[in-house]
Specification:
The protein is α/β, with parallel strands linked by helices and 461 residues long. It has 2 domains: 12-211, Rossmann fold (3-Layer(aba) Sandwich), CATH 3.40.50.720; 212-461, 3-Layer(aba) Sandwich (Rossmann fold). 41% of the residues lie in helices and 13% in strands. It contains 17 helices and 14 strands. The chain has helices spanning 22-32, 45-51, 63-70, 81-87, 113-125, 142-153, 172-177, 189-199, 213-244, 248-256, 277-290, 294-321, 349-359, 373-379, 396-400, 420-423, 442-447; strands at residues 12-16, 37-41, 75-78, 90-93, 130-134, 158-162, 182-185, 208-211, 330-334, 363-367, 390-392, 405-408, 432-435, 451-454. The strands form 3 sheets. The protein has a 6-stranded parallel beta sheet, sandwiched between helices. Residues 1-5 have low confidence and may be disordered. It binds nicotinamide-adenine-dinucleotide (NAD) and uridine-5'-diphosphate-glucuronic acid. Residues 137, 165-169, 224, 227, 231, 265-267, 269, 272-274, 276-277, 338-339 line the site of uridine-5'-diphosphate-glucuronic acid (UGA). Uridine-5'-diphosphate-glucuronic acid (UGA) is lined by residues 137, 165-169, 224, 227, 231, 265-267, 269, 272-274, 276-277, 338-339.
Length: 461
């Protein structure tokens, strides 16, 4: 075993996984640290080709410019994983950690097959002592498993750090350039301080929190659970408001003005989507059960139960407002991404709402400014029996032509300026607008003569 670890100045970073986290995070590191050579590798050759082209694979405001500044100088995208591991003194693992679909913990536990494959490849290919960073969101104590793989399969010394990512899609560049905090968990103080030095190039030292590895792994799961819990809490209150003539905007304003509660993440809507909230809470629930903490598991599981209920509740409400049946009716779905300013549709609430509407016999016409018609078709491919009912449009007004209702499922800024007085002339008589994101100009919609339903507002009819 080689003990002498003398690579405490990071000069060559390799990141395995060129996805929504690896791509933007490494682009910002390269941009802010011109003295570090950053190589992002992925087994998906198509994705790497896109990163090397003028059409990068992720829509994220500001990302294009960062990539253009650094790519070819100190930022490289490659499929040569082995070479990139060999040349690195610090390797980030930023691979996907989806919910397991089979075997023990299926439907709950995180599937670690990609992270394990990554660790095995690092052990096989490394040519020196290396810092290995968990960037993926992982179950608490994964670092232990990773260390075991290294000890069994390599002669070199690896320091495993946990540096979970807190960026949100749609604001990734802003979040990376000016983070609330950077979290680095690790045992070896020299390795921790080498990674602190990287972030300290642009992040104030007070914002860089160092902890033990397990706290870092757990804090990431806990942060997502707390954020999702707020969304489920405000969504539960949205239903309560609709039943009582209380107004969710007024309630949220009062809640948010209490500095102990804070004003962010109090926007009621169609339910949370995205690749992580659900998977990370399911993972937390699984881990709590594993440690015999049944009540804790049940407590967090309720955040997901409420989220599922909100999506179903609103889809059923659309059907009810349209006379109890949508068979043969045309419904414009405005927005398919799980939130604005991203082209990501993973776990998008729109998938669940479209499922309900298609299964109820509606014709569904989808428009999203950044999600292609092909992607919508692919996300709903499991409903092949209903595929003739699913259509796409190239603008919001076009989606509304002949529609009995329009339902807004993503809060894209452009939907605020839809000219409803013109759109209404193309819709069916007595048409409805369902603002499931509470993001439209409601006075304008009412003036246009449309029936309007808004999440968290008591309906007038
Ligand atoms: P992603 O699916 O967009 O990207 C992961 C990439 O890893 C894929 O391109 C895949 O081909 C590649 N990959 C998997 N195994 C590989 C291997 N053995 N060798 C080479 N490449 C491999 O996933 P993502 O959204 O970037 O998420 C990555 C991790 O970051 C997850 O654990 C997620 O929970 C966490 N995270 C995501 C976000 C987010 O906003 N998406 C934010 C914070 C944390
Ligand atoms: C979330 C966290 O915010 C990030 O800190 C974390 O790094 C990331 O998950 C992750 O681990 O993947 P993200 O899912 O990209 O980021 O986006 P969010 O802004 O958190 O939104 C998640 C969902 O909640 C969206 O569907 C959004 O529309 C919904 N939401 C959010 C609401 O309905 N109301 C709100 O007030 C806030």
């Amino acid at each position: 075993m080689v003990k002498n670890f003398n690579l405490m100045k990071i000069k060559n970073i390799t990141c395995i996984g060129a996805g929504y986290v690896g791509g933007p995070t490494m682009s910002v590191i390269a941009d802010r640290c011109p003295h570090i050579r950053v190589t992002v590798v992925d087994m998906n050759a198509e994705r790497i080709a896109a990163w090397n082209s003028d059409h990068i694979p992720i829509f994220e405001p500001g990302l294009d410019a960062v990539v253009k500044r650094a790519r070819g100088k100190n930022l490289f995208f490659s499929t040569d994983i082995e070479a990139a591991i060999k040349s690195a003194d610090c390797i980030f693992m930023s691979v996907n950690t989806p919910t397991k679909t089979e075997g023990e913990g299926a439907g709950r536990a995180a599937d670690l097959k990609y992270i394990i494959a990554c660790a095995e490849q690092i052990a096989r290919s490394a040519s020196k002592n290396t810092i290995v960073v968990e960037k993926s969101t992982l179950p608490v104590r994964t670092a232990e498993k990773i260390k075991e793989i290294f000890t069994k399969n390599s002669q070199y010394t690896f320091h495993v750090l946990s540096n979970p990512e807190f960026l949100a899609e749609g604001t990734a560049i802003k979040d990376l350039e000016n983070p609330d905090r950077v979290l680095i968990g690790g045992e070896n103080t020299e390795a921790v301080s080498a990674l602190v030095d990287v972030y300290a190039q642009w992040v104030a030292k007070e914002k860089i929190i160092t902890t033990n590895v397990w706290s870092a792994e757990m804090a990431k799961l806990a942060a997502n659970a707390m954020l999702a819990q707020r969304v489920s809490s405000i969504n539960s209150l949205s239903a309560f408001c609709e039943a009582t003539e209380a107004d969710i905007d007024e309630v949220a304003k009062v809640l948010g003005s209490d500095s102990r509660i804070g004003s962010k993440f109090l926007k009621a809507g169609i339910g949370f989507g995205g690749s992580c909230f659900q998977k990370d809470i399911l993972n937390l629930v699984y881990l709590c059960e594993h440690y015999g903490l049944t009540e804790v598991a049940a407590y967090w599981e309720q955040v997901i139960v409420m989220n599922e209920w909100q999506k179903k509740r609103i889809a059923q409400l659309v059907i009810k407002k349209l006379g109890g049946s949508v068979k043969g009716k045309k419904i414009a779905v405005l927005g398919f991404a799980f939130k604005k300013d991203t082209n990501d549709t993973r776990e998008a609430p729109a998938i669940s709402v479209c499922e309900t509407l298609l299964q109820a016999g509606a014709e569904v016409v989808v428009f999203d400014p950044k999600v292609s018609a092909q992607k919508v078709q692919a996300d709903l491919a499991h409903l092949s029996a209903h595929h003739t009912q699913l259509k796409s449009a190239s603008s919001a007004p076009e989606a509304c032509v002949g529609a009995d209702a329009a339902i807004v499922l993503t809060e894209w800024d452009q939907f605020k300026s839809i000219d409803w007085s013109s759109v209404v002339t193309q819709m069916s008589p007595q048409a409805w607008v369902f603002d499931a994101r509470n993001c439209l100009n409601h006075a304008h919609i009412k003036t246009a003569g449309l029936n309007l339903w808004v999440v968290g507002k008591t309906p007038t009819k």
